[in-house]
Design goal:
Layout: H1 16-24, H2 29-32, H3 40-47, H4 49-52, H5 72-82, H6 93-108, H7 110-116, H8 128-143, E1 155-160, E2 170-176, E3 180-184, E4 197-208, E5 212-220, E6 223-228, E7 235-237, E8 246-254, E9 258-269, E10 274-281, E11 288-289, E12 295-296, H9 327-346, H10 348-352, H11 361-377, H12 383-389, H13 400-412, H14 415-418, H15 429-440, H16 447-454, H17 461-471, H18 475-488, H19 509-528, H20 534-539, E13 542-545, H21 547-552, E14 564-567, H22 580-585, H23 594-605, H24 630-637, H25 641-655, E15 669-670, E16 673-674, E17 678-682, E18 688-692, H26 694-703, H27 705-720, H28 731-741, H29 746-759
Length: 764
């Protein structure tokens, strides 16, 4: 601004660009005489454009773009209290109101914010997760689907009185809930008379909930082999350890929401003792005996899982999208295609339903390639596509295997496979089927959905809703929703969750793993049982605990390793908001953190945006006087006016959660002072909301329409992988209204989202 010193960029904050120059302009003596008649627009045109530009986009090295969410009351108060920074008293009363009104209407109103956000559907290839799930399901179409129909848990166990698993020597057949036995020098069954020689095997499937690397461990001094989703054992230690129990480990990638065949064989021959324990270390969890709830006695076909490493997906928009194309991504798709091609050739006769010596083998392999291409492209092939992708390779001079290799490789490198939605015309039934399957499963359509598309039964909202409701019952939908909730609650943004061992010696890796399981079980219970009510995510007064957690969090419950639903004092606990795992995640290693908790609530639960802090300020506990509470420390460090632009929102939200310490345990005092969890927040409507603890905050969020809209936004983005505004100016409001009318039913919201996305016709 003419006549004023430019404030360095690092000192600016979310609305300093608004207020510094706006209020500074009133210093002009010429303007002072007429300031009552000058409108906010005139003032902006005269003195603000130089730094802020005509449309508020900001000028490099002078001002940042206008962005974020501020209520009119917040803007007015901020201008009166902090601007200009050199002398805030120069811009008061009507002047501040006039300036705030113009800036709010022009740049910060909800309508303007909606219009300013990106609203273009981008051409997108599969995300890494979608590629893994799609290729697994593509191969499973021919190899057999891994679906469990048996509701019983545990593994089928067989015990033999010989080391060779001879059928006539079997003495017992039963279901064992887990595999964890210490037999010592005794036989495992009373019918086995010779304790020096026997064998045992356990068979069934293991169900996994998250995608990632799983480490399987067997502990035994005897000979053992373990198979997991493989025709070859992943652990092969078919020799004894001469009486010394050892750990044998192997790591394998598995996809969440699926069962995998599992077999464990063990024998003893003249060893001094016998024991066996089947354990694992899932992603983000501690090593443990594989729990009964993850084991089923039914065996399933193997699942083909690509091992190629892909570059991370673009997540600039706040959710993973396949919009970035790079050499490393192209190389990864080639490597993965070669890996799949190798798997196809290895199982070619099984895939094509033929035998090596069959006279019609070549014809059947060619037909398999036709079907493979049709499923990969998620629609029937034209005559030209059949020729290009398959038939041209099956020339007499080429061997059948080479023809199949070329065909499969060409199919898997085609954009028709790699890009999930390339249609910019009116979507047909096959496009709708793909949008549904990728929105709900992150994978290709199943037989039932594909058949519905073939029959032309996917072009009406009620038909789409019927299919979506069916698809929600599939474990893949449950896995995708769990993935969404982990993202929404920011569960995976920390490498590890560790606390000060001197202060919290009981908070070990097993407690952390149990807490994560507890949170997952709570979310599953709310979403998949009963009314699927979003509000219960925030208001429910129960948690899932086992005896280990009960001891740490001082909750009375029966002894046992299994998790049970435990009701707590509803005045102290409020759903995910106060779940110990979440409270511990948003805390320091030795202290609670109102700032981290407040930022989480602001951004994720209320959907309000925050600018980065104007300057990096490290919270150093040692810099404060002894005897200060965490609240007092945070209030002191965020007191500067430059901080309060955002901390006027962050602090009240974080302070309302101060009853929970660094491990999420409820407390009444800190440093011998009563906890003060009261707070006041100015809402986007300008109302002042008062909280007195976590329960009040949870009630407010559960009733706040902006929070409802924020949840709609985040679920839409995770499902569709496109910006919600690109589907129409009123779609967010319409979906939020439908959400509220459904009783805040999360499953029904997902169905409504898919109806919108499936039938949408993008503009080219």
């Amino acid at each position: 601004m003419p006549g004023m010193t430019t404030i360095p960029q690092y000192r600016r904050f979310s609305v300093s660009a608004i207020t510094l120059l706006i209020c500074g302009m009133l210093l002009s003596s010429a303007d002072a005489a007429d300031k009552k008649t000058v409108t906010g627009a005139q003032i902006y045109q005269k003195l603000c454009i130089e730094c802020h530009a005509k449309n508020g986009q900001g000028v490099t090295e002078k001002a940042n773009p206008f962005q974020g969410q501020k209520s009119l009351a917040e803007l007015t108060m901020l201008i009166e209290e902090t601007m200009p920074e050199e002398d805030p008293e120069l811009c008061q009363g009507e002047d501040a109101k006039q300036v705030a009104q113009y800036v709010f209407d022009r740049f910060f109103s909800p309508d303007e914010q909606d219009q300013s956000q990106a609203s273009r559907i981008q051409l997108s290839h599969m995300t890494v997760r979608q590629y893994l799930y799609t290729t697994a399901d593509l191969m499973s179409h021919f190899l057999g689907n891994a679906r469990v129909t048996n509701k019983e848990n545990g593994l089928r166990a067989e015990y033999f009185s010989t080391r060779n698993f001879k059928g006539d020597k079997r003495v017992e057949k039963r279901i064992d809930p887990v595999v964890s036995f210490q037999f010592g020098d005794k036989a495992p069954h009373e019918k086995i008379k010779n304790a020096e020689e026997f064998s045992m095997k356990w068979e069934g499937s293991v169900y996994v909930e998250e995608t990632g690397d799983y480490e399987f461990i067997i502990k035994t001094e005897n000979g053992a082999r373990l198979w997991v989703n493989e025709q070859e054992p992943i652990i092969d230690e078919w020799v004894s350890s001469q009486g010394r129990a050892k750990e044998h480990k192997a790591t394998i990638r598995l996809l969440g929401g699926r069962p995998y065949t599992l077999r464990l064989h063990v024998f003893k021959y003249k060893d001094k003792s016998s024991s066996i324990s089947l354990e694992w270390k899932p992603p983000h969890k501690a090593q443990e005996v594989i729990p009964q709830r993850h084991l089923v006695p039914q065996q399933v076909p193997g699942t083909f899982i690509v091992s190629t490493e892909f570059p991370p997906d673009d997540s600039v928009s706040g959710y993973e999208r396949g919009v970035a194309v790079s050499k490393s991504w192209d190389d990864a798709t080639t490597s993965a295609a070669l890996e799949i091609m190798t798997g196809v050739i290895k199982h070619l006769d099984r895939l094509a339903g033929t035998k090596p010596e069959a006279k019609d083998r070549r014809d059947k392999v060619q037909k398999f390639c036709h079907r493979f291409a049709e499923l990969a492209f998620r629609r029937p092939l034209t005559a030209e596509q059949k020729t290009f992708f398959v038939d041209q390779h099956f020339q007499p001079e080429l061997k059948t295997e080479l023809a199949a290799k070329r065909s499969v490789l060409l199919i898997l490198k085609s954009p028709r496979f790699l890009y999930t939605d390339r249609e910019f015309a009116q979507p047909d039934d096959f496009t709708i089927a793909s949008r549904l399957s990728y929105g709900l499963w992150d994978s290709m359509p199943d037989r039932q959905l594909y058949d519905a598309a073939k029959a032309g039964r996917l072009n009406k909202p009620e038909q789409i809703a019927q299919q979506a409701e069916r698809m929600l019952n599939d474990p893949r939908a449950q896995a995708k929703l769990r993935y969404f909730f982990h993202h929404w609650l920011q569960l995976d943004e920390k490498e590890e969750l560790a606390k000060d061992k001197a202060l919290f010696p009981e908070f070990d890796d097993h407690v952390v793993a149990d807490l994560r399981t507890s949170l997952d079980m709570f979310i599953d219970d709310v979403v998949w049982n009963g009314s699927s009510d979003y509000r219960q995510l925030l208001l429910a007064d129960y948690v899932y605990m086992n005896s280990r957690l009960a001891k740490v969090y001082q909750v009375e419950m029966p002894e046992g390793e299994s998790f049970q639903k435990v009701s707590l004092d509803k005045d102290k606990r409020a759903g995910v908001l106060t779940h110990p795992y979440l409270m511990a995640n948003f805390a320091y290693h030795n202290l609670s953190s109102p700032i981290h908790r407040g930022v989480f609530v602001t951004r994720r639960l209320l959907g309000r945006s925050l600018k980065p802090p104007p300057q990096a300020t490290e919270f150093k506990d040692g810099d404060f006087h002894a005897g200060m509470t965490t609240r007092e420390k945070v209030a002191q460090i965020t007191k500067p006016s430059a901080c309060m632009s955002c901390h006027s929102i962050i602090n009240p939200l974080g302070f309302s959660l101060e009853h929970f310490d660094a491990i999420g345990r409820y407390r009444k005092q800190e440093v011998k002072k009563d906890i003060n969890a009261s707070a006041e927040l100015v809402s986007l409507t300008g109302d002042t909301v008062k909280f007195n603890g976590a329960r009040d905050l949870a009630e407010y969020i559960s009733q706040d329409q902006n929070a409802h809209a924020a949840f709609v936004d985040q679920l839409f983005h995770q499902a569709v992988k496109q910006p919600i505004n690109a589907y129409g100016e009123k779609i967010r409001d319409d979906l939020t209204t439908r959400f509220e009318k459904s009783g805040y039913n999360i499953q029904q919201l997902l169905v409504e989202i898919m109806k919108v996305a499936a039938l949408h016709q993008p503009q080219s």
